[in-house]
């Protein structure tokens, strides 16, 4: 079993992979709507000044496509390790931040937080989920693709079932068919896991793409 490696993992070819699907739009075949099974604009439309944070945002197409349909005082924030590979002018409501989601922290809360197939490349996945839970507004919605098989104990044995149980106890819902975690309402989350490192050589996950395995005690 490969020995877990300490973060940061950004220099790993798995994490810094510019061939992964970075072009998902808001709707359609290759889209957030298809991956998450949610009409994101409907969730934001009833809010007077909606805010959306997209973690591991790739080229930011979904937020760019959403911008014209939302009010002028909307706040859209895209955070990605490398940012758009093709620079282009951003809509006034969109801020594109080049940073690691493992260390970045927002200065505000959000009505919607998404992470579409981004957790697969994060070392401390559970740590990011607990932090993101506190970034939600009182009735905000968090949606993130999650692979329990990527959660391991320090010796490499599976810990996914225990992780899902702990996440559900903290208020998350998990849909195993979609590999989707959801959380409604911002809160402080504490999980009985301590991150000890990650293995970027764990191999393909359920998407068929190489992914990171996160190790905990």
SSE blueprint:
Blueprint: H1 32-36, H2 40-45, E1 51-55, H3 61-66, E2 75-80, E3 94-98, E4 110-115, H4 125-133, E5 136-145, E6 151-153, H5 160-169, E7 173-175, E8 180-184, E9 195-199, E10 213-216
Parallel strand pairs: 1-2, 1-4, 2-3, 4-5, 6-10
Antiparallel strand pairs: 5-8, 7-8, 9-10
List descriptors.
transferase, methyltransferase, globular, 5 helices, 7-stranded mixed β-sheet, 217 residues, alpha/beta
Report what the structure shows.
This protein is α/β, with parallel strands linked by helices. The protein is built from five helices and ten strands; from the N terminus they run ααβαβββαββαββββ. The protein has helices at residues 32-36, 40-45, 61-66, 125-133, 160-169, and strands at residues 51-55, 75-80, 94-98, 110-115, 136-145, 151-153, 173-175, 180-184, 195-199, 213-216. The strands form two sheets. A seven-stranded mixed sheet has the order 3-2-1-4-5-8-7. A three-stranded mixed sheet has the order 6-10-9, covered by helices on one side. A hairpin with a 4-residue loop joins β7 (173-175) and β8 (180-184). 40% of the residues are buried.
Strand numbers in spatial order across the main sheet: 3-2-1-4-5-8-7
Order of helices and strands: HHEHEEEHEEHEEEE
Shape: globular
Helical segment count: 5
Mean pLDDT: 91
CA-based gyration radius: 16 Å
Q: What ranges have pLDDT less than 50 throughout 5 or more consecutive residues? A: none
What proportion of the residues is helical, as a percent range?
Answer: 10-25%
Structural class: alpha/beta
Number of strands: 10
The percentage of residues in β strands lies in 15-25%
**Termini separation (Å)?**
16 Å
Largest sheet: 7 strands, mixed
GO molecular function: methyltransferase activity
Pfam families: Methyltransf_23
Organism: Streptomyces sp. 900129855
InterPro entries: SAM-dependent_MTases_sf
